Amino acid sequence: MNKWKLYTTAQIKPEGWLRRQLEIQAEGLGGNLHKVWRDVRDSSWIGGSADGWERVPYWLDGFIPLAYLLNDSEMIATSKRYVDAIIAQQKPDGWICPCTEEQRRDYDPWAIILITKTLTVYYECSKDERIPKIIYDTLKNYHGLLTSGELSLFKWGKFRWFEAFIAINFLYERHKEDWLVDLARILKAQGADYASFADMWKRPLNFWQWETHIVNIAMMLKYEAVSYEILGDGYTDIAEELHSLLDKYNGTPVGLFTGDECLSGLSAIQGTELCAVVEQMYSYELLFANTGDEKWAERLELLAFNALPATFSDDMWAHQYVQMSNQIAAQRFPGKSLFRTNGSEAHLFGLEPNYGCCTANMHQGWPKFALSAFMHREGEIINALPIPSTLDSDEISVKLCTEYPFKNSFVYEIKAKKDIRFTVRIASFAKNVTLDGVAVPSENITVELKADEERRLAVAYETVPYLAQRPHGLNTAKCGSLVFSIPISYEKKMHEYEKNGVDRTFPYCDYEYIPTGDWSYALTSDKFEIERRGVSNIPFSSTEPAVVLKAKVAPITWGYEDGYETVCAKIPESTEPTGAEREIELYPYGNAKLRVTEIPKI
Question: DSSP alpha helices (H): ranges in 260-344?
Fold first, then answer.
């Protein structure tokens, strides 16, 4: 299989709205978590007394590429300080995690897997030549412990075994040593076999279990893509089979699967955990890179332009643990939680709603997405994601000017340094594609360039709004990679307090979003008028969307879910109009922090 390779932060740089989105992240929690959150600030990984398991590796996994993409000297220095402290604690036998030798047997191996994965990210950004040996010694030690039976996979490590292949493949490119293949085989043998229990995903249950945990599943989708080569297995595209099953029984309009925090069925009022959003994005990035199958790039866009921005406040100082398709309020449930396995505050916006795993892990979403814009293989480069970026590699320099996904026009300024083939991926939904003003087939555009040749490519196409059917007689408006929702205006109620030794003080405090606008509508037409307005200083602003759909609706009696005053009914009580037809604006899902996305049609 002819795989694509990723470029590094030295070669790809974000531009336009994408750079601004990364700047917002750096100005918010993404760039400041180590200053305000003790699980990172005082972590055992750097000699402190706080969390010594997944949270610092999770945070660094996003913080490091963010720092290098923005070329932020202070953040780069912070990255090095943390990595230096982690390396300094490595034991002579290679063990790197912050626990005593006596504690190793009970130390969940997920952290071993995660820190080696994170160190590969640091190496790709920094080119710090210490790192390959650190990873080598860590995995060699782990192989020895697994081989001797002193350790085995259990809990999170068992269900995330394939994440180790990021570092294993990294090493195997440098050292074709048999023990790495043996380690790969041991991990697969001891790890969970997801295909064997996929039938469990068809019927959601109100209890927590490893097999239906949504983040495990989001990570799992890439397991064959990252492991088949070193294991010597054939590629079967098992990810597509499992994806289809998950979508059929747990799918959402934005390409997620419900999971709060385990799979939760086909319901617009069940949530999806933020960790699952960024891990599913990462799975799709690696699925595309390792298989070249463009469906994964298109699915990646759907997540990145909708699910990812929807679950953050505009300034990215606050996030939700779970987002809902039909989310008419983000207020504490006064009694029993609506969610199957999450608490009553999981959908609030804040520092650490429900659990802190997302507080640490959410930062990888935008930086890794930005790094997937261009990929390469022998003699060829592809613009996998048409987002505003520059590429400067040994083979080519490219500047892509665009406001995609808000507008569908793309200008490429290209200078080839070698003879090279350059491909622009064209989405399956593109209509009336033009190249330099001339109509061309709706398929990938490829140009052959000679060394020192300069080219300007102007690509454009149309996207047509349409109504997609959803379960329970509901519908969702879509246009290209954007999903649209009825936006609900709201006011914020701020909560400042201290909990478990952590201060929640502005701007890193918690918020309830209390609705002030109407939402109880049904569509009266499947025809929409699209209006493109341009990107504001906040690309996914909750008040200034870059594009809207104008839709005809009528008010209905939707009603509330039994037992709740802040949750709309799963299925509307009635679709009979209670007033005259009117026109409203639908916002992109990522802009509408409170929203109705799955809508009845009269």
Answer: 274-291, 295-302, 308-310
